[in-house]
Amino acid sequence: MAWWSDLVEEQPEFAERVRARFAVRKHGTMATLRRDGSPRISGTEFDFGPEQLRLGSMAGALKALDLRRDPRVALHCPTEDPPEGDPGSWGGDAKIAGVAHEEPPGDDGSHRFRIELTEVVLTRVGDPADHLVIESWHPGRGLHRRRRH
């Protein structure tokens, strides 16, 4: 099992850049699996604590019921366009795949989950701006960087 704290310990600079992409706005996107196996896209807020990455939802929300049934989840940072004329200064696009573990409900019955990491990816424009740099981290494999033209 790998948690947010494991990534921070192993790759602190990469983890900080990923966290920064999720912090550009309050709401990001998550994907869960519906009962029939089709994807469900939902808006959500993320909490990057010192030890765990967590997310929550209102009591009875379909995305929470999806996670109870099938805990696989994909998270995408809030989107932000690269600056016009200077795409190399864009911080990138971050994605996290993992498994949601339910925690005790909040006082209002809200759902709370901590996320076990299975993959973390950061994609950005390279320098010069003629290629993408794709950095991916997987538990047990570490951080890999590749270029795509």
Automatic annotation (TrEMBL):
Chain intervals with Basic and acidic residues compositional bias: 100-111
Recorded GO CC terms: cytosol
Chain segments carrying region Disordered: 74-111
Transmembrane segments: none
Gene Ontology MF terms in the entry: coenzyme F420 binding; oxidoreductase activity, acting on the CH-CH group of donors
Protein name (database record): Pyridoxamine 5'-phosphate oxidase
Keywords: Oxidoreductase
